[in-house]
Design a protein that fits this description.
The complex is a heterodimer. Chain A is mostly helical. Chain A has helices spanning 2-15, 22-27, 30-47, 49-52, 90-125, 128-143, 146-157, 161-188, 191-198, 203-239, 251-260, 266-294. Chain A has one domain (45-294): MetI-like fold. Chain B has a 6-stranded mixed β-sheet with strand order 6-7-8-3-9-10, sandwiched between helices. In chain B, a hairpin with a 2-residue loop joins strand 4 and strand 5. The two termini of chain B are 22 Å apart. The chains are: A mainly alpha, B alpha/beta.
Chain lengths: 300, 306
């Protein structure tokens, strides 16, 4: 009997006094902290844009058109990042533009995730027939070129924020479906699922208690990556003028305008590009960090 | 030649009565996996099921639990439990029996626990779903169970993830979870195979102690006669899905009647007599066994045709 006590001690030293909580692990991961912090900062900017933005993003003033950012010759105070070809404040427009980007990121990625993972779980767990139906649907779906499909879709249902969201959901649910289906199938083979069956748990109980918790880390990582993708897709659609109406500032729209006057005012192009770039990198890194710290096997 | 020896009669009706269970592999040209296996597990008995890998030990365990793989089909026989044939129960009726009356101690503690859930959630699941305990009661019960399997720090273990525990600790958790459901029968599927020898011994002692305290019947599947000798009251030796020898453990080990059992015993290391070498199973024993099985299969085919 003296043996097991040494066992217990070794286990105790391995685990530390208390197993770290999920929150504790997340906070100690630099990727999660930096990228997540940036995303939080963006959310605050978007929510409180009217309070934070120094100027009205729509106010035009041809007398102050294409002013350079502060620190360059001819810069004017009050226009930190300069003005665009119509004299609108670039910084304020970037801040307001984050509203559309983040709305699309969260709503579109969230919906795509929901639809894709429900179908993926069903395909992965309910067996051959359901799997065949859903998987063939995904195959056919993915055969359509995504950009053409979204442009076609918006041409049919009209432009606007909801159209952009629908377009992204319709295209990207397949991504979630495939990953979740494979992961569910892997999990269903595991010993602990067999053990759960052996003590007579019902199929829903096994799906939600044994399988889903192991799929969630992958899902969260994928969701975060998808948010980055959604931001880019929205920017592309804005760039070609298929997103929200042109009186709402968007990063994609700003890039389109900046491109035309890039020789007179490079900052009009650079500012939204930088915002877009930083946001997508942040989402990707956050997804990476979350995948690492939520994975029960990778974390120590 | 040697027909399976008749079982020593039990005083009472057995808890589990497997009668002429046959199974075939659909993938492998309907190759027989189990050949009319009969065995009884009495009340409060630990019954060893021994054989080399592929002998069909696990198939029997899986058949009882209704988790046989899709490429295996039960071709005949009954699994009697409390007057009912488990093989004929509906999926729902079987689910009601499993976890309440029959529980499993799985083979590999490193994969049998869910890596993303804390021990508490995994231990209380069965108690809540199968015993109808509230979350609070289930937690208290889990704590008591962990103490019963001599885990000194049950609070911390409940809060842990499986990867934070050693293999021996995990197996203790699994044993606690199985016996904690107060089942009438525990299927222990090679519960010590994945553990190192010192831990093995403690786990065996633990299973025996719990089994005696709760009066549980145990079907103990193992490939290791040494392990079986320590824990089992009676033993069934399988070879290629056929019962080779059956009887009280002490008798079988002291005076094996079948040449194959003798060979198995000779292949087992004797720590008390380190000078004795290990003997591989002699080819003539294998040849004789295979001939016996071929004759059995031929007889079975004749029976089917005639």
């Amino acid at each position: 009997m003296e043996h097991w006590s040494t066992n217990a001690k070794t286990a105790a030293t391995q685990a530390g006094p208390q197993p770290p909580s999920i929150a504790g692990r997340l906070v100690s991961d630099p990727k999660v902290v930096v990228a997540g912090g940036f995303i939080l900062f963006l959310i605050v900017l978007a929510v409180f844009a009217p309070l934070i933005a120094p100027q009205d993003p729509l106010e035009q003033n041809l007398l102050t058109a294409t002013l350079p950012p502060i620190g360059f010759a001819d810069a004017q105070p009050g226009f930190l990042l300069g003005t665009d070809g119509l004299g609108r404040d670039v910084l304020s427009r970037v801040i307001f533009g984050s509203r559309v980007s983040l709305t699309v990121a969260f709503v579109a990625a969230g919906l795509a995730c929901l639809i894709g993972s429900v179908l993926g779980l069903l395909a992965g767990y309910l067996g051959a027939f359901v799997d065949t139906v859903i998987s063939r649907l995904v195959d056919v779906w993915m055969a359509f070129p995504p950009v053409l499909l979204s442009i076609l879709l918006i041409a049919v249902i009209g432009t606007g924020l909801h159209s952009v969201i629908i377009a992204i959901v319709v295209i990207d649910w397949t991504r979630f479906c495939r990953v979740v289906r494979t992961e569910t199938m892997n999990q269903a083979q595991m010993d602990y699922v067999t053990a759960a069956r052996a003590i007579g748990f019902s199929r829903p109980a096994i799906l939600f208690r044994e399988i889903l918790p192991n799929v969630v880390p992958v899902l969260i990582a994928l969701l975060t990556l998808e948010m980055g993708i959604a931001v880019v897709v929205e920017a592309i659609l804005s760039f070609v003028g298929l997103s929200v109406s042109s009186d709402t500032p968007t990063w994609g729209g700003m890039i389109a305008e900046g491109r035309q006057i890039v020789h007179e005012g490079w900052w009009v192009l650079a500012a939204p590009l930088a915002a877009l770039f930083a946001t997508v990198v942040a989402f990707n890194q956050l997804g990476d960090g979350l995948a690492r710290s939520l994975d029960p096997v990778l974390r120590r | 030649m040697t027909a399976p020896k008749t079982m020593p009669r039990l005083e009472t009706t057995p808890r589990l009565a497997i009668n002429e269970l046959s199974a075939i592999s659909l993938r492998d040209g309907n190759r027989p996996i189990l050949r009319r296996v009969s065995l009884d597990v009495g009340l409060g008995e630990v019954h060893g099921l021994v054989g080399e890998s592929g002998a069909g030990k696990s198939t029997i365990a899986k058949a009882i639990l209704g988790i046989i793989p899709s490429q295996v089909r039960i071709a005949g026989g009954q699994i009697g439990f409390e007057g009912r044939d488990l093989l004929t129960l509906s999926a729902n009726a079987l689910r009601a029996v499993l976890g309440r009356d029959i529980a499993l101690v799985p083979q590999d503690p490193s994969t049998a626990l869910n890596p993303s859930r804390r021990i508490e959630a995994q231990m209380t699941d069965g108690l809540r779903l199968k015993r109808g305990l509230s979350a609070k009661d289930a937690r208290l019960r889990a704590l008591a169970l962990l103490e019963e399997v001599q885990i000194r720090d049950p609070d911390r273990v409940l809060a842990s993830y499986p990867h934070q525990l050693s293999g021996g600790m995990r197996q203790r958790v699994l044993i606690a979870a199985a016996f904690g459901l107060e089942p009438k029968l525990v299927i222990a599927d090679e519960p010590t195979t994945a553990l190192d020898v010192t831990v093995q011994k403690q786990i065996l002692r633990l299973i025996r102690a719990l089994q005696e305290r709760h009066g549980t019947s145990v079907l103990f599947v193992s490939h290791d006669l040494g392990v079986v000798a320590k824990i089992c009251d009676r033993v069934t030796v399988l070879y290629m899905g056929k019962v080779v020898e059956q009887g009280a453990t002490a008798e079988v080990l002291a005076a094996p009647r079948h040449a194959y059992t003798k060979a198995l015993l000779a292949a087992n290391p004797r720590y008390d007599r380190p000078d004795t070498g290990l003997e591989p199973t002699p080819p003539d024993v294998i040849a004789a066994l295979r001939a016996e099985i071929a004759a059995f299969d031929a007889g079975a085919a004749e029976g089917r045709n005639g």
